[in-house]
Amino acid sequence: MEADFRFDSHLHNGDPLTSRTIRVPAGRPTRGTPPFSWEESAMDAIAVNRYDKWNDWSIAGMLVAWERYNGLGYRQYGILSPYVWACTDLYARGRYVADGRFEANAESRQCGRSGNAQGTIATGLVSPPAGPK
User: Fold this and answer.
1) Which residue range is the domain that position 41 belongs to?
2) Residue 23 sits in the same domain as residue 2
3) pTM
4) Residue 92 lies in a domain
5) Which phi and psi (to 5°) does residue 103 adopt?
6) φ and ψ at residue 107, rounded to 5 degrees
7) CA neighbours closer than 13 Å in the CB half-sphere of residue 103
8) Run of H or E residues at 68
9) I need a labelling partner for 116 at 20 to 30 A (CA). Which of 50, 92, 110, 125 fits?
10) Mind giving me the DSSP string for 72-98?
């Protein structure tokens, strides 16, 4: 979501690949010299969040990973994370706004990862993950 499916932006936060990230997490990737390729940046984003060690790529496991990636802060407000659930019937409103403040009536302007995944699976761009073995 951070990069809006753009491959000229850091996966971490959507900053341009022409330099290290400015927004949180700032200064990524720590290795290499800009400009970065999307693959270099993506590998760093995956490693810094330890998803290279994650081993549950079932749909349920991905939902957990996506929520962890964006943060668990929505739980204290009793709503499902818009990062995961926006554009589904499981999310209506409530989100953190630009200054990091939670606003109960603010609505996400982006579809969450579950909707994005459902759409890419429905169009045949990706296959659904295999269930647990």
Assistant:
1) 1-53
2) yes
3) 0.79
4) yes
5) -120, 120
6) -115, 145
7) 9
8) helix 59-70
9) 50
10) SGGGGGT---HHHHTTSTT--S-EE-T
Q: Are 24 and 99 in contact (CB under 8 A)?
A: no
What is the token pair recorded at 81?
Answer: 């994370």
Q: How many structural domains comprise the chain?
A: 2
CA distance 24 to 21: 7
Whether residues 66 and 45 share a domain: the answer is no
Indicate if the alpha-carbon torsion angle 26, 57, 40, 9 is positive or negative.
negative
Q: Is the dihedral of CA 105, 70, 80, 130 positive or negative?
A: positive
**pLDDT per residue rounded down to tens, the chain (133 residues):** 777 778 999 999 999 999 999 998 999 999 999 999 999 999 999 999 899 999 998 889 999 999 998 899 999 999 999 999 999 999 999 999 988 899 999 999 889 999 888 888 899 888 887 765 5
Number of CB atoms found within 10 A of residue 60's CB: 12
With contact defined as beta carbons under 8 Å apart, do 8 and 38 qualify?
yes
> Quick one: which of 82, 14, 70, 72 has its CA closest to 42?
14
